[in-house]
Amino acid sequence: MGQALREIHQVYDEKLDGMRGELETFYNLKIQEFRTGATRQNMESVHAKEESKRLRTQLTEFRDKLTDLDARNAALLRELEAIRREKEERERELESENNEFKTEVAKLRAEMEAILRELQAIMDSKLGLELEIAAYRKLLEGEENRDGLRQIVDTIATGQQQRSQAAMSYSYQSSSMSSSSAAAAAGGSAGGSVAYGAGGGFGAGGAYGSGADSSMRVNQVTKGEMSAKTTYQRSAKGPVSIAECSADGKFITLENTGRKEEPLGNWSLTRNVDGKDVANYKFNDSFVIRPGDKIKLWAKGQKPYSASHLDVETDQSLGVGANVITKLVNPSGEDRATHVQKTTYA
Question: Considering the entire predicted model, what is its pTM?
């Protein structure tokens, strides 16, 4: 009996020892796993702390940079506002200067137009005086057999030439005016007059009228009971016109009143004096008259040394007479500008 109990007790002890060994092995394995996991977690925790520290450092740097950028942005905004105010101030100044310049240009344009009108009146007077001289010469040619008449007419002609030269010296006074008055002056009308007389028992008077386009002028010369009346009429179908024809047949003036160059290549300038064709001048292929230019065509041998470089000397005589028709003709044979001078004696 006792032997059986000892055997049973020994069996239980062996089983208990086996179970204890298994439990110790299991627990040791689990403890090893826990230690390994704890080590890994510690390493991850350390890495996470380092990453967190690095991110905090970057965040601090970014915040510092943001503060600097905010300050710089505020400075740039202030500078932009200052530049905007300066720009507005400059624009106001430029607008004010522009208005002043426009006012000054309007005044100068009005003064220039007034001077041009006065100059045109003086040129008309000069032309009238030249025609009077031509009329006296014709009277002289018809009365050469009368004693003393040549001396009297020469004296009158000399006096008229001196007065013509004196009429070319003139003064112009301008007064301050507003832009509206300047525009009114530019759009209005003006006239000029010249008074003169001749000694030696004879009287000479000139009268002429000029419209807005200066298309017709009338000059009348009276000597005793004989009078000479000269009428000028001009017309143009374009910007190029015959501005002036010298009464003594020395030159013809062409003017371009347009805003662009006008080619006159192969155009012709014809002149009919008392029913006879005395001149037919043809321009070369490259002849061009620029806007605002006046070009004089001088008769053969009449161009002075002081003439403009734009002037042209023809190889023909332009002729002198009582009835003179000057035409500017294009290559198609169409009359583009006409200047008519008619003189009648009574």
Answer: 0.40
